[in-house]
Amino acid sequence: FITSLFGQWLFHIKLDFNFVSLMILFLSIGSCVSFGVLIGFTSKNHSVTNITSQAFMMFISFLSPVMVDVNQLPKFLQYIAVVLPTTYVANAFQAAFTSNITKNFYLDILVLFIYFLLFIGLTGLLMDWRKS
Fold first, then answer.
1. For helices 85-97 and 46-63, angle between their N-to-C axes, nearest 10 degrees
2. What is the pLDDT of residues 98-127, one digit of tens each?
3. Is the pTM of this model over 0.85?
4. Under DSSP, is residue 124 helix (H, G, I), strand (E, B) or coil?
5. Half-sphere exposure (Cβ direction) of 47: Cα atoms closer than 13 Å
């Protein structure tokens, strides 16, 4: 919230904070963290978890539309960016903060919820419960 308040002041823009943005916050945390949980529980050891998560973090950071607009990426990277949950997080936050709620916003929310369920479900299926 501090960053967004500072950004409003610095760039002279108005962001609309509402209940929807809080819902997106929890849904985005859930979908991204559940992916990290999937990596952590399916890795052989802590070193593999660390290397894998760092590699995914670099990859996801540059392909999410926060750093670079998706349209500025090469075509094959645009297809990969569509698969990442961070694309939907960025689109949903942009719509919520600018009060531009459309059908695409609800699609973004649905996709984030599906990612959350998918990653939690895969974690439950792939986790070796005997080692826990």
1. 50
2. 888 899 999 999 999 999 999 999 988 988
3. no
4. helix
5. 0
Tokens of 59: 């990859």
CA-to-CA distance for 68 and 31, rounded, in angstroms? 21
d(CA 32, CA 16): 24
Check: CB of residue 89 under 8 Å from CB of residue 7: no
Phi, psi of 33 (to 5 degrees): -70, -35
Q: How far is CA 75 from the centre of its chain?
A: 21
- Based on its alpha-carbon atoms, the radius of gyration of the chain, rounded to whole angstroms, reads 17
Cα 80 to Cα 6: distance, rounded to the nearest angstrom? 32
38 vs 31, 61, 93, 116, CA distance in Å? Answer: 11, 18, 24, 11
